[in-house]
Amino acid sequence: MAKAPPHIPLVAGGMVGPFGRFTDRSLVDIALPVVQGALKDAGLAAADVQAAFVGNAFGGAIVDQESIMAQVLLAPAGIRGVPMQTVKNACSSGSSAVHLAWSAIAYGQYDCVLVLGAERLTHADKRRSFAALATATDHKSVDENRSVFMDVNAARANRYMERYGATQRHFAQVAVKNRAHAVMNERASLRTPITVDEVLSDRVIIAPLTRAMCGGVVDGAACVVLVSPDFARKRGLSHTSRVVASGLVSGLPDGDESGNATARAGQAAYAQAGIDPREIAVAEVHDASAPQELFDIEDLALCGRGEAIRLLEDGDTALGGRMPVNVSGGLTSRGHPVGATGVAQIVEIHEQLMGRAGARQAGAPKVGLAQMAGGLLGQDSAVATVHILTV
Which residues are catalytic? Predict the structure, then answer.
């Protein structure tokens, strides 16, 4: 079990760029303003960055840039010559990059580390996008016109319905809630309000999932700057949040749902932070499909098994509720540019803790959580990450 580190890394600043379809822009064009914005938000310069990690899952498949993605994306921002790595870990690529940066600061290797998550996932030939996504499985062949991830999500959704009495309408309510959050997020890819009936009548992807319940293929970038407490003191950085835990685990292909990767990453993070799940006031979770938000809440022990439906019905997970979830709009409405998503979650929680989320501000939270999962090993995620931030 992970132990509390000698140094608690701090978020000094960050930025999330717009998420959407940007086929006319290079990945450098998408990433550069976000890196510059994150440094400006932190009150730092490129010369202050001692190391960097870049989360990018599918650059080789979509933009034909593979081995030196970090160097290519960061050089235009003036970040050159320092240690940097490209991190590939499916949908957890960005949050895995955060984990590596967190570890480097927590154990004294560096004092200022930049993390960029960036992805161009859209392509004129959608089969190329689906083929790229399929590489995050251990399957030798998949249907080039569909997502195996939605197949697995749908299978768990059907089991959840049978076990706990959930309905397709509950899943639609999650999608509607997150779209309402995204309407207030100028960086979200989908900002038109929708109704439960519209979600239910949308095209069926695989029952019980309709298109409006599924995260779309989009492009985007997000960046965060982590610093050590000593560095923050010396530089007078006062508007910082504390990343008190960073849990990362790999999947168990023969495991059961109760001990899945998300559950184990959550347990590791809670133990490392010395925090009870009941202390979480705001959360960003990996809702690749609407029902997955319900699974994640339960896997993370934010409520009991089968109780996420009640939280949804009572409005607890909506903005203004007891524990708002995915106030950014989540993957289903903000969008899911794979390598960027985990970093965007960290920035969102940081902004919430700093009281800087504008119309999406969820009260005055003191503790927030960000969770990502990626890839498939059997029926489990290949990787899961959980970060806990406090003021």
Answer: 91, 336
